[in-house]
Amino acid sequence: MLELGRPPKTDKATILSDVVRMMEQLRTEAQKLKQLDEDLQEKIKELKAEKNELRDEKQRLKADKEKLEQQVKAMSAPSGML
């Protein structure tokens, strides 16, 4: 690899060792990125499940609210029995 202030490396063994070192670094980085991707995919699944649970809870709460509103209307309606 070229470095400022140094003559270019022309020795085959040096070039090959540099390439091997770079390949190892790239493999390590690729593995880290693969693990990060897997972790993010798992987090996405968890968040989607939580979103669905919250959506279901919202629907239940909405239905409960409507029932309570109907009960309040029924209780506040004047009764003809007086």
UniProtKB/TrEMBL annotation:
GO terms for biological process: intracellular iron ion homeostasis. Residues 55-70 have a biased composition (Basic and acidic residues). Residues 55-82 are annotated as: Disordered. It comes from the Eukaryota. GO terms for molecular function: DNA-binding transcription factor activity; protein dimerization activity. InterPro entries: ILR3-like. This is BHLH domain-containing protein. It comes from Citrus unshiu (Satsuma mandarin). The lineage of its organism: Eukaryota, Viridiplantae, Streptophyta, Embryophyta, Tracheophyta.
